[in-house]
Amino acid sequence: MKDFVGNTAMLGAIALVIISLSIGALAAQDGTWSFTDNPHPDITDFTPEEFDVFTDILQKTTGSGTPEERCVTIIDAEYRMYNARYPLFEKTDSGLGRLSAWKVHLAETTAGFGGCLPSVPLAELLDLDNARDVEGSFFFCGRLSRTPRNSTERQAVKLLDELMYYSEVGPTTGLYGLAVANQLVSFVELSADIDYFLRRSIGQAISEALPELDTSQIEPLLDEERIAFLKQAVENRDFAAVLETTPACAPR
Hints:
- It is a single chain.
- This protein folds into 2 domains: 2-116, no CATH class; 119-245, no CATH class.
- With 252 residues, the protein is mostly helical.
- The chain has helices at 21-29, 48-61, 67-85, 95-107, 119-131, 151-169, 173-184, 192-206, 224-236, 239-245.
- α2 packs antiparallel against α3 (67-85), α3 packs across α5 (119-131) and α7 packs across α8 (192-206).
């Protein structure tokens, strides 16, 4: 899995939908918001001004920083664009509440650059890892090895929850993000069954037999029944079923 770093450039997906400002005005009056009535626009639905702004951002970020850093910049720009397009959105909730709700909306659609969403918690996990305030006994294998004991570990849990959410409901880039975390974040050490699911799912999505997606070294760690279950989960795109049945973390 350690070669997945080169593949993070694939983080990024594009798709559809349009807007309805008059219905959004009614929604804002009672403090609620309907993303169905006020969807995030696809690139094909950008106004000329939005397109110019976004093109400028893409040009400035291309070739600079890591793929994760570029995606963080893009997601920030998309959120500001959404708020500018729907100014009444600001009246519905606190800033963090709006941002979280918007991220859920973007993850569950194919609008804009939603494929970049997993890079946001991934970049923050990498920063937390550099802080080195996580004890060796605390790690994530698909479950938590233990409850968090300090603010850094609690923040790690929050970010892992967000990344796992994207892995379950969003595009394949969520699985890429988790795979990269498995390589680069010291307190992410995925169990063999989850590692197997990621490799098979990503390989199926890109239709390419990359060496880092080979599962032959993982299979001896799993019994035949579990492998059959995982293969079916890959076909069903059912990561939740794998997470629900993965064993407790083995001691490091």
